[in-house]
Fold this protein.
Amino acid sequence: MGWFAVARTLSLLLLVALARLAAAGMPRPPPHRILVDTDMDTDDLFAILYLLKHDRAEFDVKAITINANSWTDAGHAVNQLYDLLYMMGRDDIAVGVGGEGGISNDGRIYPHVGGYFPIIDQGMSTIGECRYRQSIPQGSGGRLDINANYGVRREILPQGNRSYSPLQQPTTQQVMIDTISAGPTNVFLFGTHTNFALFLMSNPHLKKNVKHIYIMGGGVRSQNPTGCCPKNDTSCVPRQCGDHGNMFTTYTKNPHAEFNIYGDPFGVYQVFHSGIPITLVPLDATNTIPITESFFKAFEEQQSTYEAQYSFQSLKIACDTWFDDQFYTKLNGDNDFAEMEVMNITVVTSNEPYGVHDGSNPFFDGHASPKFDLLKGGVHSGHVQIGFNDSFCVLKGGTKGKCQDGYTKEVQGPDSVAVLVAVKAKPNRNVKSPLDREFFDHFLEVLNRPEHTGHFNFTDQFRHYKEIMYKPDLKHQIRGKPVIFDMDMSPGDFLALLCLLKAPMEAIDLRGILVSGNGWANPATVDVIYDVLHMMGRDDIPVGLGKITALRAPDLGCEYVKAIPHGSGGFLDTDTLFGLARVLPRSPRSLILYA
């Protein structure tokens, strides 16, 4: 997780504070019913815990749905969320993920679309391209880290009573429909907007039940503080310095986009233009809430609850794994809860010239009539960025690209929407506090409150659990032919692994396991292998995780793995071993991301 993800964590929490301030001075209203749609990135976990710490008579989280086309994969995300809610005693909160529905070529949206792809690329199955998602690294610094939450998830979270179960897991769309149908609801969008955009497009009659939308994402007038050169350093080459966006993998093609908005620009456009009141917390505010060394030290000293411990350990690893020892200096710039301003904004979904079809835009290319009855020659009809290496986006003679897909842009005219935007974090009014932002004090106070606190962590849940390595005594064992097993963690591979482990050692001597990270399961699923070996008393067998992408394939992209379904029968089932991984004993070994 880069600095932007850590910093936006705290800006996101401002949304709750703003909602709270809106009710100040009035007779206590009914509880604010809340639905959260999240990509389960580490920063989102902080925000969810912050929400759950508040009195349900004030903020009542009714449901959480998982955005599955961004920083995490559905199978890993859903079980982490179940365990997080279990720790907080909130098994009453509905959880939705995935779905097997699709969108036909004529624009018909079928029930239970899983949200595995941006709307522009959604077909009739859960197999597809990774147009926008390919800009998120699959290994370290990307989805591998977030799926495992840097290993902190397995180390700290208890194991809940709920877990993913094939054919029984509520879908995202069903949970959204059930929750919003039940009464006026505030919607918090912590990731890309695919799920909620599909809900609005499919259920216009329920729009009246959405009171307000709070969005974390985008960059309006922001200027990226990373990648800037020190004064008087003539050898330094600026990178993202001054950009509106934070796309560290593709800023040379698109310097305007922020990850959450870029993940599905057309979906975000539908949300912004829905007519529902919106509060946006973009990078403009994020960049004025740096993670300072004083905040980190104060957080380290204030961990009196399980949720505070989980949050701090996640933040600590994010700090410890920063690219160099300049973590605090990169974030601790001179920056003045947030000042608000109404701005006229739209979301760029395609690039000019409009109406020129070049094969990049499935809404128009190959259609006699545009999909969803979009306007020919309109704002959606231009070139749509097709990846991190799109040659269209190259600006001749420049170091920054010209594409603007996902840009939350200030405009005037009929395509603009009035949005309440957080533009700047306010300084701390408590002059005696060592923290320079008032929100820092508030965040630490809320997270350490004894009320609405976590019930236990993993070791308190299982008090007799001991980390014991089970290794057979092979001193006098007759050992057969040595075998190295190379697997991609498909269900069939796990069956083969069990057969190898059950075979007499005099015949087959399994000496090691190599894991391909570019097959039927995501790399973080390697923990299931450790648990199987632990169950079989073979903690002596080493496990090595290999390359995340295919040979000669770019590190960013999905050239071959795109043929594997994301939903049922694909990654969702294989990452959870069809739900059976939860019944395995917990191995002392696990994926070590950063030693």
About this structure: Confidence is low (pLDDT under 50) at residues 1-14, 16-21, 321-336. The domain at 3-23+32-225+242-349+384-460 is CATH 3.90.245.10 (Inosine-uridine Nucleoside N-ribohydrolase; Chain A).
